[in-house]
Amino acid sequence: MTFRNVFRTMRLGMAAALGLLTMPHVATAAAPAKAAVDANARAAMDCAALKTTDFTQVEGAATSVTTAEIVPASAAAKEYCRVVGYVQPQVGFELRLPTQSWNGRYFQVGCGGLCGVINIQNCGDALAKDFAVAANNMGHVGDFWKEPLWGSDPALREDYGKRSTHAMAVAAKAIIATYYGASPAYSYFRGCSTGGREGLSEAQHFPEDFDGIVAGDPAFPGRLGALANNWDANHLLDESHKPVLSEAKLQLLHNAVLNACDAIDGLKDGILTDPRDCKYQWRKLACPKSGEGPNCLTAREMVAVDALYSGVHNSKGERLSPGGSPFGSELAWDGNNRRAIADAYLRYLAFAEQRPKMSYRDFDFDRDPELIKAQTAIYDPVAPGTAPDLSAFHAAGGKLIAYHGWADPGVPPESMLDYYAKVTGALGGVDQVRNWFRVFMVPGMLHCRGGDAPNTFDFLTPMVAWVEKGVVPDGVIATQFADDKKTVKRTRPLFAYPNVAAYTGKGDVNAAASWTAKAPKAVRDDNIDWLWGPKTR
Predict the structure, then answer these.
(1) Residues near 526 by Cβ (< 8 Å), separated by ≥ 6?
(2) Are residues 264 and 334 in the same domain?
(3) How many domains does the chain have?
(4) 67 touches 51 (CB < 8 A)
(5) Does residue 399 sit within a domain?
């Protein structure tokens, strides 16, 4: 026994003798009964008492509460108990618990980018509906985009990968059960980008944490940071890290795509319902050999365009990620943003050791993918060479809604459909899987939000109805707001894939009521053959 342990044993013994170790202890043997839903439940104890309650014995999520305080009612929310703390080793979190109006449900929000922050503000809509809500920093403090120096610690890599989201759910439920004297009747998760990745990880690796999961534009770090985003940055930036394509040239390309393909879906409205239907031959924009100009693309610019549309591949022509940048995404081709993501990932997370001097230019797309596979398996829900497995989530009765912007420039939308195809292929086909897992593709939306198209919607409400009442979410209404963030520009329904929204030919084209669901004439095979896909041969 070390001197430190001897001293600690003596100190604890003296404290016990003096009667100082009197913190309430959270039992882990018998779980309390589940709460009733929509019963306006009141707290069973004082908020401040949570700070002196021992949560260190919560199995798999030893927790310390550092703050527990009442926040008075406001226009945004009723009175709630604000709980701040961390799960070992340093998964920082905030939990907000309605004091007198809990609806019996738990809601957890995902993070984005490299996280390092507690984005509890993204729980506002659920808190307003009386959910107990929580957010966490995914195990570290750091900048949302810049260098993840914390990656030097293997445990923090594991937390950023899959553990922190699960640990947050376990800790939050323990605190909720203590505070209300009842466990959540139902638990829900929602996240986009990194949060979307968290949702798919939960469904596969911790299938009993949540009854309903909403996962948007899932960003798998291994596929993106080292591969797809890196590839894009290498082609969008020149040797001086300056954009190869100016804003004017991107606008030229985008306009050409819309002129060629906007009306394919039956309505010329600036939105491509399914970019895969567009067969535009962009090489028509190539400048003549004799020169260049504002209305054509130079040879160097054409190389970049070819690379973005085709997606990342090695010298053998093998795909290293499912899909490329879709038609309609051109105005968001930002090489500097992709470079920042790629450099951060390659320097601190991609390899077993850190390489702080590594540049996105140093990555070898033939040699290096093999060197990063082991670390990729830590972060990505689906390890290289395997298929997604949601059988346990389905067996547990879970419901999953995934959505993806069809104009997402950084996370290929086809990767979502490839994922869905792998799941449906393994679990009985689309008709069977649609009973518990549905995908909604959002025409014209960029990554998680934005784009000149309806891009604001609520999947939490239909998810609750699906989980608790069996109401299947066939469609939701998406809204596009004007620049003032208040005026509605247009609304349009989103339908579960493979159905799409089609204009009826009557009424206001900017009103959702003028649109109906349309099934494709033939259902595509969305399986994509790529290097890290499941090995079927």
Answers:
(1) 414, 417, 418, 420, 421
(2) yes
(3) 2
(4) yes
(5) no
Nearest CA to 532 out of 336, 326, 354, 387 is that of 387
The verdict on residue 520 lying in a domain is no
Give dist(CA 362, CA 346) in Å, integer. 10
Q: Residue 397's closest CA among 166, 128, 207?
A: 207
Beta bridge partners of 86: 64, 92
Backbone angles phi, psi at 167, to 5 degrees: -60, -35
Residue 149 sits in the same domain as residue 267: no
Once rounded to an integer, what is the mean pLDDT over residues 281-296? Answer: 91
Asked whether the bond before 32 is cis by omega within 30 degrees of 0, the reply is: no
pLDDT tens-digit series, residues 231-273: 999 999 999 999 999 999 999 999 999 999 999 999 999 999 9
Residue 163 DSSP label: I
Tell me how far apart the 2 most distant CA atoms of the chain are, in Å: 92
C-alpha 134: how far from its chain's center?
16
The single-letter DSSP state of residue 490 is: E
User: Whole-angstrom Cα distance, residue 403 to residue 413?
Assistant: 9
Model confidence pLDDT, tens digit, residues 57-104: 999 999 999 999 999 999 889 999 999 999 999 999 999 999 999 999
Co-location of 231 and 372 in the same domain: yes
The DSSP call for residue 95 is E
Closest CA to 96 of 49, 45, 131: 131
Q: Residue 234 sits in which domain range?
A: 224-379
**Cβ 512 vs Cβ 503: under 8 Å:** no
Q: Residue 26 pLDDT > 70, yes or no?
A: no
Q: What is the pLDDT of residues 370-413, one digit of tens each?
A: 999 999 999 999 999 999 999 999 999 999 999 999 999 999 99
In a domain, 313, yes or no: yes
Residue 412 near residue 419, CB atoms below 8 Å:
no
535 has a pLDDT exceeding 60: yes
